[in-house]
Amino acid sequence: MNYFELFDLPATFDVDVADLSTRYRELQKATHPDRFANASEQQKMLAVSRTAQINDGFQTLKEPIRRAEHLLELKGVDIKNETQTVKDTSFLMQQMEWREALEDISHSRDADAADELEQTFKQYRAAITEQLQHLLASDDASVIQNAADHVRKLKFMAKLQDELVRIQDALFE
């Protein structure tokens, strides 16, 4: 299922989330199962199925990593459930440093260091996301593989961010 077609949006990484939300509400209104209360069982089941597709499509397109994964899938690269890791050695070294920093913050309970690391994560994600936007516009196979690596990096960064949030929450308990 191409969710961009479902929402009548161009298949690009840069999505206007407000426009997506408006289209979502319109589609929900048109296909809501309550509108089919007096319809046949088959029509009711189709309405429920369509509503589920619309919900899944909205959740996929509104979240940047899931949106990027969907774009990759449309280009023939499925990384949603893969176990492949990033092969970029500089990124691997950076992630080791970040993990050490998280551990240090956890032990030292240094809120300022946590804030600094959060800013570092934010800047790194922004740079990767900007590059990803350009990479996903291509149909070249090697460029698309590079885009897949960028998505893997973003997925890793999301895990680091979650870990940092847990540490920050613990600092304020």
From TrEMBL:
SUPFAM superfamilies: Chaperone J-domain (SSF46565), HSC20 (HSCB), C-terminal oligomerisation domain (SSF47144)
Keyword Chaperone tagged: yes
Coiled coil: none
J domain: residues covered: 2-76
Domain of life of the native organism: Bacteria
SMART domains: DnaJ (SM00271)
Keyword annotations: Chaperone
Role noted for this protein: Co-chaperone involved in the maturation of iron-sulfur cluster-containing proteins. Seems to help targeting proteins to be folded toward HscA.
Similarity field: Belongs to the HscB family.
Subunit structure comment from the entry: Interacts with HscA and stimulates its ATPase activity.
Protein name, UniProt field: Co-chaperone protein HscB homolog
